[in-house]
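Friendly challenge for the regulars: who can give me the structure tokens for this chain first? No prize, just bragging rights.
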Amino acid sequence: MKKGFTLVELLIALSIIVIFLTFTLPKVFKSIEKSPDSDVQKLNTLLNKACKEAKETGIAQEITGIKGDKTLEFLDEKIRLSQEVSDVEVNKHLREGITYGFKIYPQCISDFVVLKLTNNKIITLEPLTLTASVQYEK
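First reply, four minutes later:
Bragging rights claimed.
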């Protein structure tokens, strides 16, 4: 009696594995791509708090930070990003100096903000939807 598998049996098993991977791997990679970025989640939470405060007071609220630091502040609330902020654009103007800030208005709209982090991550704040999104610079 022979021990082992024939070539045909091995090819069939390999074909089944390839078919299985063909259907599952793209779904795995899409779920990884769509998983929420922690920096974006933290910033969106801070934006929602600033929006709520701006609505309640009727006064524009400011979120501030320092270039070279990971921290963004709003009132007594602080968030830490994964990397330091290297450059900041507010309303298409590159911010000079070390400190920066951007406003959230009572209508829950904001300045247009682009935060460039030291790991080539770019966080963009969309003014009308008041949401942050992320992309990577090549």
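The chain has a mean pLDDT of 89. The longest strand covers residues 61-66. Your move, everyone else.
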